[in-house]
Amino acid sequence: MPRILIIGGHGKVAQRLEPILAERGDTVTAVIRNRDHEADVAATGATPLVADIESFDTEQLTNLVSGNDAVVWSAGAGGGDVARTWAVDRDAAIRSIDAAVAAGVKRYVMVSYFGAGPDHGVPEDDSFYAYAEAKAEADAHLRESGLDWTIVAPSALTLDEPTGRITVGGSGEQSVPRGDVAEVVAAVLAEPATIGRMIEFSSGDTPVADAIAAG
Q1: Which helix (H) or strand (E) holds 200?
Q2: Per DSSP, what are the bridge partners of residue 135?
Q3: What is the DSSP annotation of 106-149?
Q4: Cα–Cα distance measured from residue 89 to residue 99, given in angstroms and rounded to the nearest whole number
Q5: CA–CA dist 18, 104 (Å, integer)
Q6: What phi and psi values does residue 7 have, to the nearest 5 degrees?
Q7: Residue of 205, 160, 209 lying closest to 183 (CA atoms)
Q8: Are 101 and 85 in contact (CB under 8 A)?
């Protein structure tokens, strides 16, 4: 029974991921910042754990992730506040990667976005720039960490009903329901062949498990 720690456990993707993992028998712990969200998370089948990852240092994060088989990063500052974007999407993410290394938690799945990377092409005067830069640095740190990593990189997120079908690759100009992103993360955790890959995807016609296995 794998033990999965989800950082950002009250997010829209995470709340769709948690019941998928719980229903297949995984032990799921969801890290949340706001104690008022404990009931929402508990209702998914996950165990809520209140912790402020923005303020936790690497040692505290190491204690947080210890004893798990995998870490899923699904947290984010949510845009708007540039300083907090750097603090969460880059700095806290990097500390969590270092914590996984220190704790011996080899499997790490990062939820990123389609087109993330040093060549993201977002101009400095764009409101998305800080997020794009933060994700590029965090993703690069994960690649170099020595962990068994996978970067899950969906195109534009929607609240449409999930279809369970995606297309890997493409232009990134499409969209994908958050529920399908959750399905991809769950499938990635169960598929060792996804280790060491960045999976960019949108809605499509191929069942999730087949799409990620095909690469």
Answers
A1: strand 197-203
A2: none
A3: -EEEEE--TT-STT----TTSTTHHHHHHHHHHHHHHHTS-SEE
A4: 15
A5: 23
A6: -95, 125
A7: 209
A8: no
pTM given for the model: 0.95
Which tokens hold the place of 108? 């790490």
* pLDDT at site 214: 73
Question: Could you tell me the two tokens for 208?
Answer: 């999730």
Residue with tokens 């603090």: 87
Q: For residue 65, what are its two tokens? A: 């992730």
Say which amino acid occupies 74.
S
Give me 50's structure tokens: 């209140």
Q: Which two tokens stand for residue 138?
A: 């965090």
Please tell me the total number of residues recorded for the chain in this structure.
215
Element containing residue 181 per DSSP (H, E): helix 178-189
Token representation of residue 74:
């699904």
Quote the CA–CA distance of 181 and 164 in Å, as a whole number.
9
Residue ranges in the chain modelled with pLDDT below 70: 79, 172, 215
Residue 193 has a CB neighbour count (10 Å cut-off) of: 12
